[in-house]
């Protein structure tokens, strides 16, 4: 027995004996069970976790009667127990001790672990003080603002909700459901998410405060829960959950890829139709949609708690449809009724909707919590109309991702940073033009200026663009820290100067493929932007001047390393300069020695001197690309021995690209899992491979999502793809699987079911049926390349167009059955299609019709290769000379914000 003192000041004491043992008589408590004996005066000194099975306490009878309805009836009523001493209580010792602490005015900390025991004890013993305290705690932690409550985890929330359900407690149910709905994204980060009860998940999906980043995120979450709970219970209805998903707001590639999903397949065809119809006929469908009346399925989920909005990859979402979500439902219905009425009067006036929306801006809701907006790859979205709306509804916007808007030039960028002063991150990525002057031989070129549409509509924001102002009179400095301009071929040196002036806080710049900027322009920007830590400048004129801007102590003749602790280069985290041929070897070596903190490095196609890579300092490298590198003196220099020398720096490597000039070999490949266990992307060109090496990699790199085997030697067999790789998203098999048949391709679709990008070159055994295998096996493909793949298109292109989400399509030397109008037809049928590459050899009628500005739809790049016939070097008597196709030239059409550029190059692009 343990004793903790007695209460000498109380004349009216009663002894309470609390035990978890089911003993009706105190004498029945076994002696071996330890008990603690205390007085109420020292109850606050008890430890929170009692190890004792029995608690004996002397408590004041009057205090118990005043605070507890249970003891009021027991001690002051006509019960026989009112005169007993001691009184036996069968209850959890820790919970009962907490009840007594609160009765005596002591502090008890409530948590998700003890909430249910305390609440249950408060109800049983009738202590209103505890009930109020518990309710206040639950209300406080479930109304936590900002980040999620540190006092509440998903398991604890679920446990509390279950108690509320069992006892029909609406207060608990409402607060738990509301909290989970508001913090749904947070819940997905827990492994226990799939243990959330079905009823709670259903209630959450119906809650008006359900907050998700995108409809895709909600769909993924529901399907994940359904997959995890398939064998656990039959008491839930998968269709009921799936019906909560607003399929009209899902990305096309995502929903197309769910055609084989057991829970969602029945919804896919209808959903794809609902997406394709408005994407192909936006004006007509827009009017029809609003005439239907119910617009709830088109409202993007926005609540006052929303921090991120993602509608990327949705060709069906127009600016008008998105703006619908920014108005209260009643105002939206009224406004769009007016739009329909005016459209019916003047159907040719396309600005009616924008004008009406502009007039209603004052009625828009304000979503102050929204910090990130992603509208990338939305071909039907009008940014001009949306900017004013975003400014009104998203005043706290910090990140804007608007990739693949080809009309977004530097003037609109300046307008944007003026209207959103809190913006820190802008992504304006475009497809990099295939015509890189340093890589191709141009034989002819011309351009056609785009016919600009009138911008007189009153809803278009009209300002005095900063780009037209002299530097000294510029009225603002932005907070931009990250700026992505990849593929913006119309960006010039003067634009970089403006960016340098307007964005003094810039720490990340991506100008990959910006072919109109010079080394001088890049170096000037580096010198002015003192906070730069990441530079992505592949396929630009980045050269010695830019290196010297990073390492001002160097000169072109520098051959000896120095101390670079104070140089900008030592602060760099990312440096991508692949394809930049204006850097000399000595300068590059010195630059490598200064990169102390580098995490990501791309030196693709750069000629390295002997010790350039060996001089790389630091131990934080996560991405390394040394494809097509050549040592000037020794030729083949990058081997698995080189990999071993880099081992300390590549432990956290996630992406590895090795190509011409490097040689890992099967032995080196088998070292990768131990050297780079976090690797999720492996791209190999011209490497010696084997079945055992590739199988070992696939089995021991669980995070692998990208695998490219291109023009490799040694060969692999179908054995490599006989086991499942559900995590693989991108697969390139180029000149390594000549054995690929329709049957082997079907096996590949079963074992790699989640591919979104596929490249096959040299699979000469495939025929027309392969089209159906590809479209049914990978309906969500966004990139497809088929080259020298037998006779896939001998009878035309049919099933391939069932991959509705294709963004990049290449078909070359696959059979002469492609019709003349295929480019224009494919662009009209595939709303996401931006790039298409064909070969005249496959043209059924010997040529293709080229799209104009009006019928190009979302296309930004068209490549058409042309071959010429060449006599075989082997002549056989009495037989007609054999003539094989030989590449002659490539016609490239590229649209940007200003013009259509037509270029003919000698290379096969």
Give the SSE layout.
Blueprint: E1 2-3, E2 13-19, E3 35-39, E4 54-60, H1 61-67, H2 69-76, E5 87-90, H3 93-103, H4 115-125, H5 128-141, H6 154-166, H7 170-182, H8 184-188, H9 198-206, H10 215-228, H11 238-242, H12 252-256, H13 265-280, H14 282-291, E6 308-310, H15 319-324, H16 329-345, H17 352-359, E7 372-374, H18 383-393, E8 399-401, H19 410-419, E9 425-427, E10 442-449, E11 482-484, H20 493-502, E12 508-510, H21 519-528, E13 534-536, H22 544-550, E14 574-576, H23 585-594, E15 600-602, E16 607-608, E17 623-625, E18 630-631, E19 638-639, H24 640-645, E20 655-658, E21 662-663, H25 665-675, E22 681-685, H26 691-700, E23 706-710, E24 730-734, H27 742-751, E25 757-761, H28 769-777, E26 783-787, E27 808-812, H29 822-829, E28 835-839, E29 861-871, E30 883-895, E31 899-905
Parallel strand pairs: 1-3, 2-5, 3-4, 6-7, 7-8, 8-9, 9-11, 11-12, 12-13, 13-14, 14-15, 15-17, 16-18, 17-20, 19-21, 20-22, 22-23, 23-24, 24-25, 25-26, 26-27, 27-28, 28-29
Antiparallel strand pairs: 2-4, 10-31, 29-30, 30-31
Helix pairs in contact: 1-2, 3-4, 4-5, 6-7, 7-9, 13-14, 16-17, 20-21, 21-22, 25-26, 27-28
């Amino acid at each position: 027995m343990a004793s903790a003192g007695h209460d000498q000041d109380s004349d009216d004491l009663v002894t309470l004996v609390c035990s978890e043992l089911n003993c009706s008589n105190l004498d029945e408590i076994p002696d071996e069970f330890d008990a603690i004996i205390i007085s109420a005066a020292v109850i606050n000194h008890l430890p929170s976790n009692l190890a004792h099975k029995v608690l004996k306490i002397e408590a004041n009878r009057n205090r118990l009667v005043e605070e507890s309805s249970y003891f009021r009836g027991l001690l002051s009523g006509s019960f026989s127990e009112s005169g007993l001493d001691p009184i036996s209580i069968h209850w959890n010792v820790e919970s009962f001790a907490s009840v007594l602490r609160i009765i005596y005015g002591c502090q008890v900390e409530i948590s998700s672990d003890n909430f249910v025991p305390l609440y249950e004890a408060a109800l049983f013993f009738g202590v209103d003080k505890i009930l109020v305290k518990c309710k206040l705690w639950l209300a406080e932690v479930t109304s936590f603002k900002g980040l999620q409550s540190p006092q509440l985890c998903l398991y604890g929330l679920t446990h509390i909700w279950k108690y509320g359900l069992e006892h029909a407690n609406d207060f608990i149910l409402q607060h738990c459901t509301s909290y989970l709905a508001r913090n749904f994204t947070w819940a997905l980060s827990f492994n226990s998410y799939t243990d959330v009860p079905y009823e709670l998940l259903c209630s959450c999906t119906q809650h008006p405060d359900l907050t998700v980043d995108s409809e895709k995120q909600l769909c993924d979450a529901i399907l994940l829960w359904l997959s995890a709970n398939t064998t656990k219970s039959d008491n839930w209805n998968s269709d009921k959950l799936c019906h909560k998903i607003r399929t009209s707001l899902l990305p096309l590639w995502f929903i197309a890829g769910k055609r084989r999903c057991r829970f969602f397949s029945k919804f896919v065809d209808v959903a794809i139709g609902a997406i394709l119809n408005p994407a192909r006929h936006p004006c007509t469908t827009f009017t029809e949609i609003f005439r239907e009346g119910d617009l709830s399925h088109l409202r993007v989920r926005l609540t006052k708690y929303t921090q991120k909005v993602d509608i990327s990859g949705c060709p069906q979402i127009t600016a008008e449809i998105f703006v619908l979500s920014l108005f209260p439902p009643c105002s939206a219905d009224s406004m769009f009724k007016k739009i329909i009425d005016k459209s019916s009067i003047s159907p040719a006036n396309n600005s009616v909707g924008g004008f009406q929306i502009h007039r209603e801006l004052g009625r828009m809701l304000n979503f102050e919590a929204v910090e990130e907006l992603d509208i990338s790859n939305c071909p039907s979205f009008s940014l001009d109309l949306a900017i004013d709306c975003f400014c009104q509804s998203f005043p706290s916007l910090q990140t804007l991702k608007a990739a693949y808007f080809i009309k977004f030039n530097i003037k609109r960028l300046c307008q944007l940073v003026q209207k959103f002063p809190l913006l820190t991150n802008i992504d304006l990525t475009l497809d990099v033009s295939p015509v890189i002057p340093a890589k191709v031989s141009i034989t002819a070129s011309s351009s056609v200026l785009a016919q600009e549409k009138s911008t007189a509509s009153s809803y278009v924001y009209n300002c005095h663009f900063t780009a037209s102002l002299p530097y000294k009179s510029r009225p603002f400095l932005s907070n931009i820290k990250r700026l992505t301009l990849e593929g913006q071929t119309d960006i010039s040196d003067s634009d970089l100067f403006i960016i340098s002036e307007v964005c003094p806080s810039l720490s990340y710049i991506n100008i990959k493929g910006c072919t109109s900027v010079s080394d001088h322009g890049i170096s000037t920007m580096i010198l002015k932007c003192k906070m730069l830590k990441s530079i992505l400048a592949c396929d630009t004129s980045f050269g010695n001047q830019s290196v010297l801007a990073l390492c001002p102590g160097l000169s072109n003749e520098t051959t000896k390393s120095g101390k670079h602790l104070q140089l900008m280069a030592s602060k760099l985290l990312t440096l991508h300069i692949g394809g930049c041929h204006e850097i000399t070897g000595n300068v590059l070596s010195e630059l490598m020695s200064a990169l102390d903190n580098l995490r990501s490095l791309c030196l693709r196609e750069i000629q390295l001197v002997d010790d350039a890579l060996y001089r790389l300092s630091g131990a934080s490298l996560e991405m390394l690309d040394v494809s097509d590198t050549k040592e000037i003196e020794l030729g083949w220099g990058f081997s698995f021995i080189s990999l071993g020398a880099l081992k300390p720096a590549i432990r956290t490597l996630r992406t590895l690209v090795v190509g011409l000039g490097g040689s890992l070999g099967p032995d080196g490949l088998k070292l990768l899992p131990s050297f780079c266990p976090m690797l999720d992307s492996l791209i190999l060109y011209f490497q010696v491979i084997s079945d055992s090496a590739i199988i070992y990699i696939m089995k021991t790199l669980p995070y692998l999502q990208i695998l490219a085997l291109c023009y490799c030697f040694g060969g692999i067999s179908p054995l490599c793809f006989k086991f499942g790789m559900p995590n693989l998203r991108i697969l390139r098999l180029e000149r390594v699987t000549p054995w690929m048949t329709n049957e082997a391709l079907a096996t590949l679709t079963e074992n790699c079911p989640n591919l979104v990008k596929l490249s096959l070159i040299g699979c000469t055994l495939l025929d027309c049926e392969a089209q159906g295998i590809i479209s049914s096996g990978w309906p969500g493909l966004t990139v497809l390349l088929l080259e020298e793949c037998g006779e896939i298109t001998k009878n035309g292109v049919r099933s391939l167009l069932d991959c509705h989400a294709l963004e990049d399509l290449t078909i070359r030397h696959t059979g002469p059955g492609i019709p003349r109008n295929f480019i224009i037809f494919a662009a009209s049928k595939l709303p996401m299609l931006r790039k298409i590459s064909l070969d005249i050899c496959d043209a059924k009628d010997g040529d293709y019709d080229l799209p104009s500005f009006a019928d190009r739809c979302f296309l930004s790049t068209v490549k058409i290769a042309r071959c010429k016939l060449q006599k075989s070097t082997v002549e056989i008597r009495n037989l007609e000379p054999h003539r094989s196709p030989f590449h002659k030239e490539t016609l490239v059409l590229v649209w940007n914000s200003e013009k259509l550029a037509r270029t003919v190059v000698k290379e096969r692009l």
